[in-house]
Amino acid sequence: MAKKQTAQPQNLPSEDEAKFVEDLADKDDFSAWYHDIVRKAELADDSPVRGCMVIRPYGYALWEAVQRGLDMRIKATGHENLYMPLFIPMSFFEREAEHVEGFAPELAVVTVGGNEKLTEPLAVRPTSEAIFGHFYAKWVQSYRDLPLLYNQWANVVRWEKRTRPFLRTSEFLWQEGHTAHRTEEDAEQETLKILHEVYADFVEKELAIPLLRGQKSDSERFAGALRTYCIEAMMGDGKALQAGTSHNLGQNFAKAFNIQFLDEDGQRKLVWTTSWGASSRLIGALIMTHGDQYGLRLPPKVAPIQVVVVPIWRKEAERVIVQEAVDSLLQELTAAGVRAKSDWREQTPGYKFNDWEMRGVPIRLEIGPKDIEKNQVIMARRDNRAKAGIARETVLSELNRTLEEIQQNLFNQALDFRKSRTYQAANFTELSEKFADREKLGFVETWWCGSADCEAEIKAKLQATIRCLPFEKSVKAKSGTCVYCGKPADKWAIFAKAY
Ligand SMILES: [Zn+2]
Question: Is the pTM of this model over 0.85?
Answer without folding.
Answer: yes
